[in-house]
Design a protein that fits this description.
single chain; 94 residues; mainly beta; SH3 type barrels; seven-stranded mixed β-sheet; 1 helix; 10% helix; 43% strand; globular
Length: 94
């Protein structure tokens, strides 16, 4: 069963996963579709970089997640998010 949600609710649902694995599909900058198996809260592969980011991802509707297939950190753009699957519940993001 698919539920329809908006981007604000999608951001809230992602933040409430508390480290559980979820799936997201979105459109990348090069207009290709990407399906990602991701989770929040992974700290194992953090680099000790003394320089902070030059921008705040939350101001650009980006969420930093850990990609389970690529074993690296990636960003999910909430502006281009299409679907979300959390706890066997599928969401269509409008």
């Amino acid at each position: 069963m698919n539920k329809t949600i908006d981007k604000t609710k999608a951001k809230q649902l992602i933040n409430k996963t508390n480290g559980r694995i979820f799936s997201a599909s979105f459109t990348k900058k090069d207009f290709t579709r990407r399906i990602m198996l991701a989770r929040l809260g992974v700290k194992k592969h953090l680099k000790k970089d003394p320089k902070p980011r030059p921008y705040d991802p939350s101001k650009h509707d980006l969420i930093t997640v850990y990609d389970m297939h690529k074993n690296n950190y990636r960003m999910i753009n909430l502006k281009t998010l299409d679907t979300l699957s959390i706890n066997k519940t599928n969401y269509i993001v409008l």
